Amino acid sequence: MSSPHALDHSVHRLYLQHSPWLLRFLGRRLGNRMDAPDLLHDTFMRVLGRPCLSTDEAGERSFLAAIASGLCIDRWRRQEVERAYLAVLANQPIAVQPSPEHSALVLETLVEVDAMLASLPMKVREAFILAQLDGMPYHQISERLGVSERMVKKYMAQAFVHCAVLGAELDGVLVE
Is the model more confident about 138 or about 112? Predict the structure, then answer.
C-alpha cells in the first residue's frame, strides 16, 4: 500500500502533467470554457479517492478523461433537471413560489432522485415510474413491459430499496 505522501505526489504529478490538456478537453466537451476549471477541480478531487493505476501517458489521460466525462454527464443531467424545475416554477403564481433556499433543497433532492432513477435497470425504472407517477396497477405494468406481475413486484422491490438508500443518504444516515 502506498503512503499518503506518495499518493499526494502522484496526484500532484498527474495535475502538473495533464491539467492543461484536461482543461482543453473539458472546454471542448462542455462547449464552454467557463465551466471547465470547476470540472477540472472536481476531476482531481475524485482522483484523490481512486488513484490512477496506469503509469503511461495514454493510460493516465484515459483515466482522467473517464472521470471528467462522467462529471460532464452529471452536470448535464443536473442542468436538465434544473431547467425542468424552473419551468414548473415559472408557471406558479408568485405567491406560492418557494424561497430560494427551499428551491435549492428541492432541486438538490430532484437531482438525487434523478440519479437514483438513472442507476436503476431500464425495466425497473420504467415499472417504478409507471406505478408511482402514472398510478398504473401492477397487472397493467406487466402487460406494458411484457413481463409477469411477479416480475413487476420484484422490480418495484428493487426500486424501493434504492429509494430507501437515497432517503437515508439525504437524511445523513448513510455516508457514501
Answer: 138
> Which of 161, 49, 172, 68 is closest to 116 using CA atoms?
161
pLDDT digits (tens, 9 = 90+) for 34-55: 999 999 999 999 888 787 777 7
The H-or-E segment that residue 148 falls in is none
Where does the pLDDT of residue 1 fall: very low under 50, low under 70, confident under 90, or very high at 90 and above?
A: very low
Report which of 77, 78, 82, 72 is spatially closest to residue 38, judged by C-alpha positions.
72
Compute how many other C-beta atoms are within 10 angstroms of the C-beta atom of residue 159: 22
Q: Identify the CA nearest to 158 among candidates 126, 110, 111, 114.
A: 126
Q: What share of the chain is helix, strand, coil (3-state, %, to 5)?
A: 80, 0, 20
Q: Which domains does the chain have, with CATH numbers?
A: 4-83 (1.10.1740), 120-170 (1.10.10)
- Dihedral, CA of residue 44, residue 50, residue 51 and residue 55, to nearest 10: -110
All three cell numbers of 44: 482531481
What is the C-alpha separation between 35 and 23, in angstroms, rounded?
A: 10
